[in-house]
């Protein structure tokens, strides 16, 4: 099965609202954060699912990329 690719507009649909899963992109990789309680409703500390959060994760988050471990990868973000 071919890997799913997402444009920014397509990724925005996966915002954790109205029954949609919550996806975020980090360094071009799209992760499913739906199963994380901290992302309930597609929101986490003012950040919204359906977006590229690379800058937030590496420049503003105290967690760093260790929070990505164990998250399902659902595809790649394209330009």
From TrEMBL:
SUPFAM superfamilies reported for this sequence: Cytochrome b5-like heme/steroid binding domain (SSF55856)
UniProt cross-references to InterPro entries, sorted A to Z: Cyt_B5-like_heme/steroid-bd, Cyt_B5-like_heme/steroid_sf
Domain Cytochrome b5 heme-binding, residue spans: 6-78
Xref: Pfam families: Cyt-b5
Protein name stated in the entry: Cytochrome b5 domain-containing protein
Lineage of the species this protein comes from: Bacteria, Bacillati, Bacillota, Bacilli, Lactobacillales
